[in-house]
Q: What sequence folds into this?
């Protein structure tokens, strides 16, 4: 009996010690896209055009932060009124960049800041440069997933700062309790469900969770962190409170690098889960508190990020 | 497949202890240990496993005092996020509530049991809820009797979490305090039987 206890204790200690070591960094490649100019006849943020103002700045800042944390970054920015200078942010460029990663292994981070929309069937899309009027050049969730799968990439994290980007998030074997349209002021919106967090009490989730367990078939395994729900707009602001020119979501992503409170477990790394929690909390405390009753384009301006229901989470960048 | 598993678990859980006697002994248990988690959804059947710490607090009833008894147990658990794998991912930690039942077999002073039940969990730092079935075989021995009615058991259990998209297998130390209807004394506690 004594030997049994001894062996059990030693096994537990060995397991614990093995869990403490951080492996050497894998190959990490980031594909970063920011599109502020969709119509080259107009300047950034021109209200009579579809151009945005800060999405290129989001991408440039994300690229710098990722590089700083050891990622190899390939960026595609569309921010000039010269068409030829924006071609590294088209659908073709995105497809080519992803396909070029075939066989590289490691971890791939895909970041996108720009317009998003949804199809007549309610499928969310991102809109690369050149696709504002060419619908077939927009990219749906299924198409984006297929691009990564065709390249044989299984360690993929996608971060999308665009409207309706929640449609790219796969809940997998879980239930996402954040509704596609968040906020008690949202009776309209393109997706039927709206309201506050679905489950007030932990056990309220039991019925739905049991149904989810028995009906679950497969999950892509891709981790998607979206700025907004499937029925929500994502916002940018010139306010100094949000970095004087960033998407709100991206601003808080960037802040997670330096705010110690973002590193919940104190290991010096921001994971996809910690990034989500930090952004969701900060957006709700700041932007949502100020704009929950601001109504525009058929919806209210409050929103929350969403995160895939995969069992995995990835270390994304350092907390300094 | 999962439905078959559930039926098998329910049968083994509820049928075997039918021979249990009427004595009821409530207990509280604390557990702590390690778990190893791996996924099933990627190209390989089992992906890189990773380990994490687990702990739980349980309350339950043992029904019967003979060779066979039945156990009914509920509580809450926490499985921490695992260590990072070589691709710098880890399996997320989660809180859970559990309810389980199963037979207990007493062999001399060694108790062997098999619990089967379900857990409702929520990933850390998220609003993602999920449910899964689990099995927990275990062994325990009484190490201490105090007062007229209380006994302390120490043991090991090896819970297996049958999550929809992954598996977790653990090894835990279990300390249980039981209130017994009749006085319990053991030779090694220094009091005559």
A:
């Amino acid at each position: 009996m004594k030997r049994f206890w001894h062996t059990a204790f030693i096994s537990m200690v060995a397991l614990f010690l093995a869990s403490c070591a951080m492996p050497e960094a894998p190959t990490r490649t980031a594909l970063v896209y920011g599109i502020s100019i969709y119509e080259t006849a107009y300047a950034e943020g021109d209200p009579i055009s579809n151009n945005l103002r800060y999405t290129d700045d989001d991408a440039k800042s994300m690229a710098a932060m990722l590089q700083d944390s050891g990622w190899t970054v390939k960026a595609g920015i569309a921010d000039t009124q010269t068409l030829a200078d924006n071609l590294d942010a088209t659908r073709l460029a995105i497809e080519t960049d992803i396909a070029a990663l075939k066989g590289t292994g490691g971890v791939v981070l895909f970041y996108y800041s720009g317009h998003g929309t949804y199809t007549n069937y309610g499928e969310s899309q991102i809109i690369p440069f050149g696709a504002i009027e060419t619908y077939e050049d927009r990219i749906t969730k299924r198409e984006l997933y297929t691009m990564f799968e065709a390249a044989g990439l299984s360690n993929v994290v996608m971060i999308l700062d665009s409207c309706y980007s929640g449609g790219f998030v796969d809940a997998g074997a879980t239930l996402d309790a954040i509704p596609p349209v968040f906020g008690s002021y949202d009776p309209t919106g393109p997706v039927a469900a709206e309201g506050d967090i679905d489950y007030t009490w932990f056990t309220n989730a039991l019925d739905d969770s049991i149904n989810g367990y028995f009906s679950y078939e497969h999950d892509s395994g891709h981790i998607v962190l979206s700025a907004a729900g499937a029925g929500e707009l994502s916002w940018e602001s010139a306010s100094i409170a949000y970095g004087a020119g960033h998407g709100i979501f991206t601003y808080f992503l960037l802040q997670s690098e330096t705010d110690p409170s973002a590193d919940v477990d104190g290991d010096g790394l921001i994971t996809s889960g910690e990034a989500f929690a930090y952004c969701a909390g900060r957006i709700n405390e700041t932007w949502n508190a100020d704009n929950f009753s601001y109504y525009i384009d058929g919806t209210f301006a409050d929103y929350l990020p969403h995160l895939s229901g995969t069992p995995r989470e990835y270390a994304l960048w350092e907390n300094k | 497949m999962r439905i078959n598993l559930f039926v098998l678990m329910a049968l083994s859980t509820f049928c075997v202890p039918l021979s249990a006697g009427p004595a009821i002994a409530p207990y509280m248990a604390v557990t702590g240990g390690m778990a190893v988690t791996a996924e099933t959804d990627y190209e390989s059947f089992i992906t890189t496993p990773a380990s994490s710490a687990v702990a739980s607090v349980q309350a339950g009833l043992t029904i019967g005092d003979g060779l066979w008894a039945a156990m009914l147990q509920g509580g809450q658990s926490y499985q921490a996020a695992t260590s990072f794998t070589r691709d710098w991912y880890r399996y997320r930690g989660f809180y859970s509530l559990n309810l389980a039942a199963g037979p207990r077999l007493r062999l001399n002073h060694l108790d062997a049991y098999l619990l089967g039940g379900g857990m409702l969990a929520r990933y850390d730092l998220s609003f993602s809820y999920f449910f899964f079935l689990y099995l927990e075989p275990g062994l325990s021995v009484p190490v201490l009797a105090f007062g007229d009615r209380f006994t302390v058991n120490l043991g090991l259990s090896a819970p297996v979490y049958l999550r929809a998209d992954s598996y977790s297998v653990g090894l835990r130390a279990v300390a249980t305090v039981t209130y017994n209807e009749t006085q319990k004394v053991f030779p090694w506690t220094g009091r005559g039987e």
Notes: The longest helix of chain A spans residues 2-20. Chain A touches chain B through 60 residues (CB under 8 Å). The CA atoms of residues 30 and 73 of chain A lie 5 Å apart. The longest strand of chain A covers residues 28-35.
